[in-house]
Amino acid sequence: MPGVGGLVLLGLLLNFHTGWSVPKLLPDLSTERPGSPSLADPLLDYDRLDEEMGGGGNGTHGAVGCGLCEPDLCPETRGCRAGLVLDACGCCMECANLEGQACDPGDRSVYYGLCGTGLRCQADPRPAGGGGGGGEEDEEEEEEEEEVCVCEDQEPVCGSDGLTYMNVCQFREAAFSKPQLRTRGRGPCKTVPIIKVPPQSQVNGTGSSLVFLCEVFAFPMALVEWRKEGRDVILPGDDPHISVQSRGGPLKFELSSWLQIEGAGPEDSGTYRCIARNNLGSVSASAVLGVLRTEELSSYLANRVSEAEQLPHATDYDLDFY
């Protein structure tokens, strides 16, 4: 039966040809290089593979998008008040971070960026906000304390505009927008005292404890005194229920002074004046104190509430939403 034998032979040839050609369409997993990841491996470390391929698998963008460095394609930088630094790829220049901005320690930009000229990246020197708590929570907060750019030279500088810059970094930043700005020398500008926070007028009831605050900037440092109009005496004088305290701060070359009245009575009502002076001149600011008896205070507060109710109320169109 030659016809049947021929068909059997043809089938064997087709089967042999098909079995030979199909595997060439698939990857040869038997010849993988030692140590190379297997596509069939269920424990494949995709993060490591992504990092090896230049994807930045560690969560930072230091290597993301970094290919061949072509300086001609770098974006133009403008308005960089703290100078220029290399970007995360180490190829193009970008604006450096200013004083007080978050930063990356070291010499490589990873997330926040690098500090500019004359600045270093360190823990924020400003006092931490808030209080209370304690224990492990506070320790964790300290460990996660954000690092910011801090000026390496903290000596104040006097500008040709008559303003005192608390460090040379602040001066450089101002000079960027004022090309004509020059320094008159190291140290603050000599100036007549400036009252930065004047005392505020207030009304309260008898027996209350009241405080007036006056913050002054001056170089040379100012002497601050308190007086009450109608009395030719520097407070507290010999009055046992009035006290005055002064101390430096909150900033350099500033002085804060408090006038405190304990157990105030109607006779303490009047105008109080904070006077600051140095060898260049003097300046003053005043505030009015009203001490009312119980019935007077109730009437006063009722009138204030009535006045507030008569004020026009804001409509929905007057409100800003953010």
Overview of the molecule:
This protein has helices spanning 2-21, 46-52, 136-143, 168-177, 294-310, and strands at 84-86, 93-95, 119-123, 147-151, 157-159, 164-165, 183-186, 191-197, 202-205, 210-219, 223-228, 234-235, 242-248, 254-261, 270-278, 281-292. The radius of gyration is 37 Å and the shape is elongated. With 322 residues, the chain is an alpha+beta fold.
Measured between the Cα atoms of the first and last residue, the distance is: 92 Å
Poorly predicted regions are 16-63, 129-133
Order of secondary-structure elements: HHEEEHEEEHEEEEEEEEEEH
Strand content: 25-35%
Sheet/helix structural class: alpha+beta
State the helix count: 5
Counting DSSP E segments of at least 2 residues, the number of strands comes to: 16
Read across the widest sheet, the strand sequence of neighbours is 9-16-15-11-12
Radius of gyration: 37 Å
The global form is: elongated
Q: Mind summarizing the main beta sheet?
A: 5 strands, mixed
Tell me the quaternary state: single chain
Helical amount:
10-25%
Overall pLDDT level: 78
